[in-house]
Amino acid sequence: MSTTTTSSTTNLPHNVKPDHLSKTNIPTSELSQKTILDLLNTKCTTSLHLLKQAHAVVLKSGHFQDHYVAGTLLKSYANSPSSNLNFVSKVFYYVPRPNVFVWNVMLKSCLDHNETWKACNIAGVDKEGLQIHTHVVKLGLHGDIHIKSSAIQMYASFGLLMDARQFLDDGQECDVICWNAMIDGYLKWGDIEAAKELFNSMVEKNIGSYNAMISGLAKCGRFDDARKLFDEMSDKNEITWSSIIDGYIKGGYYKEALEVFNQMQNQEIRPRKFVLSSVLCACANFGALDQGRWIHAYLKRNSINLDAVLGTALIDMYVKCGCLDMAWEVFENMKKKEVFSWNAMIGGLAMHGRAGDAIELFFKMLRERMTPDKITFVSILSACAHAGMVDRGLEVLDNMKITFGIEPEVEHYGCVVDLLGRAGLLTEAEELISTMPMEPNAAVWGALLGACKKHGNIELSERVGKILLEMEPENSGRYALLSNIYAKEGRWDDVAEVRKLMKERGIKTNPGISTIDLNGIVHEFKMGDGSHPQVKEIYLMLEKIIDKLKMEGYSPIASQVLFDIEEEDKETALKYHSEKLAIAFGLINTNPGTTIRIVKNLRVCEDCHSATKLISKVFERDIIVRDRVRYHHFRNGKCSCNDFW
């Protein structure tokens, strides 16, 4: 190797080795700028190994002095599959007297890697943004349309909407991107009427204009307006579809999100990764297992790489749809796992009552040198709570800071309060609340109130219940739980008082809803609801179920009825709980031996839990019920929770 070559490689970053030069077999002295650029833009876009070889060629040929080549090299590193900002920065450091093109590539790389110290509107550094704007004016660049749209976006992101609007109304040229930026700014700060007025006044609109409105309206909870605009569009792109789907999902409208996705499929639009991740989230929360399986098959069929985000979305979907074995298969086959991937699997095991497996996976995570975060410990503590592992849970809480340097937060204390409460250690739970280093939130007190209901401590229930009603006067669940506690004790006057208070405050309870996915269609049931097409068959099956259960010794738990009515009427009320209707539907419409999967929005009541255990035995079915808190796997008359929920 010549002296010149040696000096040109001394500035190489540590992982670009001179041996790359010998593998290129290219006469570097004859390489033109065009050849080098073609090499960077075509041959090295998918392989970091090839890119490093090309980097060595750039240095050996002397083209690193060319700013266009150096900038293209930076861009290639920034866009490589194993992109690393530290490495990009090292390369940038050695560019001699970088020009504006090289600086722009570096700035964009910082943005792409979420290092926003140079991007004022994202980092929220308004003083620096105003200083940069001053330089723009001094340099006479304020009339540039691209700069104007960025300025509108920056001022709007700071909430300075009047200042942003002045750019639009300054009488100089503005393009549709400037208008879209202003619309987006209005919607981000909730000024819907101003956004609609501006949108309606636009002479020229593009897809981006509609997308900004749809996305913003959905984020503001105006789903009907967003959907109306979406339906009016004749030309939609993938961002349009993802905007309405994401909006529905973030608003909790999972059924509507899946309907839009099906419409997207009918129009033969190929969804990309970020849309599929969103739809998997909807499948997970709505219990749409068949739709989730279709997406998994689609990924395999189209050889779509399962990165950490998409893989974790699949894990979460299978976990929440009750298919823990499939979630585990996806997890095991993922080539790259991030901490959130481990958290999803550990949390899934915890929710399914497999605390031992969750803890074992946690230790495997540590062995693979993956650093846990605060969410990891929420999952572990939750696993301990659902399994009654008091000593282990307290040990985890104590070791969080000592061993891992993570200060326990209110969510971690809430899990331990839940752990102690479930185990009947109500005094210890209350003492922990009093010694917490922060103010307990409603979730912490709610965990204690739930434990009071389980263990029948009416005195503590009343005290905690009053605290919760003061903290969350509009949370219907708090009233319902306190009312349940009174009803269980037969204190009907107190039940009436709670209901009177709810009426005075205009609080309405959420009705119990159970869903079941059958052949890609999600069927929804409410207590006593007669709207389903198979309602007669369902009710007849329900009668058959109850008769068989009584022959096995089943007796309805009347204390679960929250009204002071006759015992016979209580039995009738219990019979038509939503999960019983869903199970009856499942027995009618699936083959013998098929697992029945139910998703319920509220916690399973004692009567339904007792009845479902017997149904699994009498009808020889595995039944998986996901309630608001955890999963219950019923098999042969037993439940995975061991009646501890």
List keywords for this structure.
35 helices; Serine Threonine Protein Phosphatase 5, Tetratricopeptide repeat; single chain; six-stranded mixed sheet; mainly alpha
What is the fold's blueprint, element by element?
Layout: H1 3-9, H2 19-24, H3 33-43, H4 48-61, H5 67-78, H6 85-93, H7 100-112, H8 120-123, H9 126-138, H10 145-157, H11 161-168, H12 176-188, H13 192-201, H14 207-219, H15 223-232, H16 238-250, H17 254-266, H18 273-286, H19 289-301, H20 308-320, H21 324-333, H22 339-351, H23 355-367, H24 374-387, H25 390-404, H26 410-422, H27 426-435, H28 442-455, H29 458-471, H30 476-488, H31 492-505, E1 513-518, E2 521-526, H32 535-551, H33 567-575, H34 578-589, E3 596-600, H35 606-618, E4 623-626, E5 631-635, E6 638-639
Parallel strand pairs: 3-4
Antiparallel strand pairs: 1-2, 1-3, 4-5, 5-6
Helix pairs in contact: 3-4, 3-5, 4-5, 5-6, 5-7, 6-7, 9-10, 10-11, 10-12, 11-12, 12-13, 12-14, 13-14, 14-15, 14-16, 15-16, 16-17, 16-18, 17-18, 18-19, 18-20, 20-21, 20-22, 21-22, 22-23, 22-24, 23-24, 24-25, 24-26, 25-26, 26-27, 26-28, 27-28, 28-29, 28-30, 29-30, 30-31, 32-34
